[in-house]
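quick one, 90 residues, struct below
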Amino acid sequence: MLNSLIEKFKLVKDFRLNQGKRHQLWVVLTIIIFALLVGNTSYKQIEQFCQNEKRQLLNLFQIPHNSLPSYGTIRRIMNGINLAELQSIF
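---
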């Protein structure tokens, strides 16, 4: 099930500029969904979820630079994502 969710997130067009982009969009979206599923609904709570589950998330997504999305990245993605596109994929 996780693989099919990730495959869907990989179809979402990344609205961000390439310069300075550290995390793939699908990784950030998946982390946001994980955080929401366990009751984290604010940007700060989602960022805290990343810190609390850092080792597991780094291993799961095999993130090479050993860092997870920051508060700013989470906020920019949640504010900038095209919800209609995301809904149409599902």
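The radius of gyration is 12 Å.
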